[in-house]
Amino acid sequence: MKLVHLGLLAAAISLSPLAQADEALAKSKNCTTCHGLDKKIVGPGYNEIAAKRRAEKGAEAALAGKIKNGSKGEWGQVPMPPNNVTDAEAATLAKWVLSIK
User: Fold this and answer.
1) How far apart are the C-alpha atoms of 70 and 100, rounded to whole Å?
2) Would you give the distance in Å from CA 100 to the centre of its chain?
3) What is the distance between the alpha carbons of residues 42 and 99, in angstroms, rounded to a whole number?
4) Nearest Cα to 80, choosing from 51, 50, 52, 40?
5) What's the pTM value of the predicted model, to 2 decimals?
6) Each residue's pLDDT tens digit, 11-58
7) CA atoms within 13 A on the CB side of 55
8) Residue 31 host element (H or E)
9) Is 88 helix (H, G, I), strand (E, B) or coil?
10) Which ranges in the chain belong to alpha helices (H)?
11) Residue from 58, 71, 63 nearest 93 by CA
12) Is the CB of residue 94 less than 8 Å from the CB of residue 76?
């Protein structure tokens, strides 16, 4: 039983740096200039985006496309400009955003 608990603890610890790394990626790409974790700045908070999109089929790919190419009209009149990210970075950011509760 202790081995199970240790395994779960090790998994939780190993995931924590990943979440921090994805938040660091968002900061390095200036995403947090317009989006807060749990509040609207210029665009919606990441928690709002996740709540709206999480259950949608193909949400991760769709969100990655919006991150890379920008979007307009979905969250109001201020468009989100395209971002200088690779496809892999956009996918990483989308996965991270959708994991936020």
Assistant:
1) 20
2) 7
3) 21
4) 40
5) 0.79
6) 444 444 545 678 999 999 999 999 999 999 999 999 999 999 999 999
7) 3
8) none
9) helix
10) 2-28, 46-53, 59-69, 87-99
11) 63
12) no
